[in-house]
TrEMBL record:
NCBIfam families linked to this entry: L21
Record's GO cellular component terms: cytoplasm; ribonucleoprotein complex; ribosome
Sections of the chain in a coiled coil: none
A GO molecular function held by the record: structural constituent of ribosome
GO biological process, alphabetically ordered: translation
The protein's name: Large ribosomal subunit protein bL21
Function per UniProt: This protein binds to 23S rRNA in the presence of protein L20.
Family, similarity comment: Belongs to the bacterial ribosomal protein bL21 family.
């Protein structure tokens, strides 16, 4: 059994016990959260829509991703702009999928 969930503007295909990194959620570590479900597949029977199912996940940790460098410049104009960015994330463990 697997489900397709949507969070942070992205979709993820998950099964029970999977650990995934998603965009940062406003939940404390150890909390359980319900995630929006797009589709659920149970032995080849696919259900889609709002009432497709229910997925609960446990928040394992929060953190920041790898640093990326954003560097802009204009040739021959003495313009240089260097910025770094680390995207915050939340690590989730899928506890249950109900169709």
């Amino acid at each position: 059994m697997y489900a397709i969930i949507k969070t942070g503007g992205k979709q993820y295909m998950v099964e029970q016990g999977d650990k995934i990194l998603v965009e940062k959620l406003n939940a404390a570590e150890g909390d359980t959260v319900n995630v929006e479900v797009v589709a659920v597949s149970d032995n080849g029977d696919v259900k889609t829509g709002v009432v497709a199912g229910k997925v609960t996940a446990k928040v394992l940790s929060h953190g920041k991703g790898k640093k990326i460098i954003v560097f802009k410049y204009k040739a021959k104009k003495d313009y240089r702009n260097k910025k770094g960015h680390r995207q915050p994330f939340t690590e989730l463990e899928i506890q249950s999928i109900q169709a």
